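step 4 of 6: structure.
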Amino acid sequence: MPAPRRELLMDTAEQLFYRDGFHATGIDRIQAESGVAKTTLYKHFASKDALILAVLERASMRVRSSLQQQAQRLRGKGLERILAPFEDLQGVCGEDDFNGCLFNNAAAEFMYSNPPIHALAREHMDWMRQFLHQLLEEEGFDPQQAWLLLPLYEGVLTVARVQDSEPAIKQSLTAIRALLQT
Amino acid sequence: MPAPRRELLMDTAEQLFYRDGFHATGIDRIQAESGVAKTTLYKHFASKDALILAVLERASMRVRSSLQQQAQRLRGKGLERILAPFEDLQGVCGEDDFNGCLFNNAAAEFMYSNPPIHALAREHMDWMRQFLHQLLEEEGFDPQQAWLLLPLYEGVLTVARVQDSEPAIKQSLTAIRALLQT
DNA sequence: GGATGGGTGTACAGATCTGTTTCTTTTTAT
DNA sequence: ATAAAAAGAAACAGATCTGTACACCCATCC
């Protein structure tokens, strides 16, 4: 099996886009870091924008299937099933090169300058909210609470960039417990 | 009173940095939009980094004094005093060129590439958390809830970039009410 | 045993970005 | 009124960025 150039490019690009940002990461850097020739990059992706879109789309699908798998495992477990994504935040925030939520970072950088990219970020968040909505519904909680859980989830990722994530996660977990069990 | 060039530059820069991002906003654009000559810009600010720092510092002070003034007005009003900053989010999220939280955007773009800017964003968040901590304490609530309120506040700003802010704010307000009144 | 397709390497075009230089003009203070 | 300070205009240096052109390598397949 030959080295899958396309995947390697997307891996490198995703890491750099996430860590350093989209505008700050040049094509040359992705080329140098991945070791793939620039010609090859432009044979696989029509432009930097196309690469960004491909990276975000793949990342979104990865997150979705991971969350869905976990939700599958915890089906019927009530509160535990709702809390699971928040418990995972501990690990996410502790990762090397952690830099918040990739989709929020993309939304911020391309809010008004690149509608397709911004739309992709919005779609990811939409999916997240609907996912939480369904989870809450299936476990017998008020599904409208998805409108609280989503900001809280994103807020923890956001605050953990500049502060200790541990107390934020801890307070969020106990708050969710208190709110849903009434 | 002559047009204060320095303030005009910072006004223009802040608007562009906020709307389009820091890396995406060039000096030339700030120059053109403000009408101030580039020579003058570099007479007031040693570099783009220095301009960014000045803009963030000024914005942080503006936010702080605004929140403190409001807190002063609502002294002793209990829950209402805690909720006030969250109620203001309605207006903030509806503004033209709204793009989340300026300090989080800065933290994301400069997380690993520019420690001074990242530190300034961290200091702003630190202040916010301590401010909420003090508010909670003064009104007789558990001050540790600041570790919940801060992510929630930032999360609403973050989610409102790609979704309707109204239900997020509404759910947050009722959640805070429910959590603190126990 | 060539043709084909994917990959490499390098140089380059053209745009843009930060920051500087030089010179002129306007404003302000004494 | 005149000196000094502030601002303006425009060109430019040097770096970097996206994207392309061109020549070459090398495996696989027919």
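step 5 of 6: annotate
 - Residues 2, 26-28, 38-39, 42, 47-48 of chain A lie near DNA strand D (CB under 10 Å from a C1').
 - The CA atoms of residues 88 and 157 of chain A lie 11 Å apart.
step 6 of 6: archive
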